[in-house]
Amino acid sequence: MSDTPVPQHYAPRWAADARPALPSVGTERETLGAFLDWHRATFEQKCSGLSAEQLSTRAVPPSGMSLHGLVRHLAGAERWWFRMQFAGEDVPMLHYSDDDPNQDFDRLDGDPEAAFAVWRAECERSRRIVAAAATLDETGIRARTGEPVSLRTIMVHMIAEYARHNGHADLLRERLDGAVGM
Questions:
Q1: Domain boundaries, the chain
Q2: Considering the domain 32-177, what is its CATH architecture?
Q3: Which of 13, 69, 111, 163 is deepest in the core (most CB within 10 A)?
Q4: Average pLDDT per 10 consecutive residues for the chain, totaling 182 residues
Q5: The 3-state secondary structure of 47-80, one letter per residue
């Protein structure tokens, strides 16, 4: 490994990295769960320290994305994949209808902190669903196709979902206050 210092403009400006450490070894469930939680924590870290106005700012035109919209979207994804698709819970969708499919990004009504509370609750419910499953081979039913979908596939899908949106959050955060990094 090089002793060359990291240029300052690449160093993160957050006070501390509060994310959980990623394991180097573990079972498949432990590893997937740890990576998913790491991405959840990364998203929350990218949003930390911003005002409600900043969280709701669409900072990368022409995109309509904002951090507030992303947290609403991710809460809906948690609910859709873990509760509705896998566990088969009969709960309403969050920020979505067939008539208005982009509510999560288009309608930024409400307090962003309330949106974060919903997202945190959905993440916790997802964790409990994963913990209760006997194996990652257990399946739910895809609502749109009726085909089975394994918990393993859902967890990998959600890791990819967070990774993609953490990239979006990087760009939004940099435009809002110049913070870059993790």
A1: 32-177
A2: Up-down Bundle (1.20)
A3: 69
A4: 43 62 92 96 95 96 95 97 97 90 88 97 98 98 94 98 97 93 67
A5: HCCCCHHHHCCCCCCCCCCCHHHHHHHHHHHHHH
Q: How many CB atoms lie within 10 A of CB 156?
A: 15
Residue 179 is given by DSSP the state: -
Cα–Cα distance for residue pair 87/166, rounded to 1 Å = 26
* Cα distance between the two ends of the chain: 20
Q: What Cα–Cα distance (Å) separates residue 104 from each residue in 12, 95, 159?
A: 28, 5, 19
Beta-carbon contacts of 78 under 8 Å, excluding residues fewer than 6 positions away, are: 119, 122, 123, 125, 126, 158
- pLDDT score, position 11: 41
Q: Within a 10 A sphere around the Cβ of 136, how many other Cβ atoms?
A: 19
Residue 94 DSSP one-character state: S
Write down the pTM of the prediction.
0.89
The alpha helices in the chain, defined as continuous H runs, are: 28-47, 52-55, 67-78, 103-106, 112-132, 151-177
| Two structure tokens written together for 139 | 């399946």
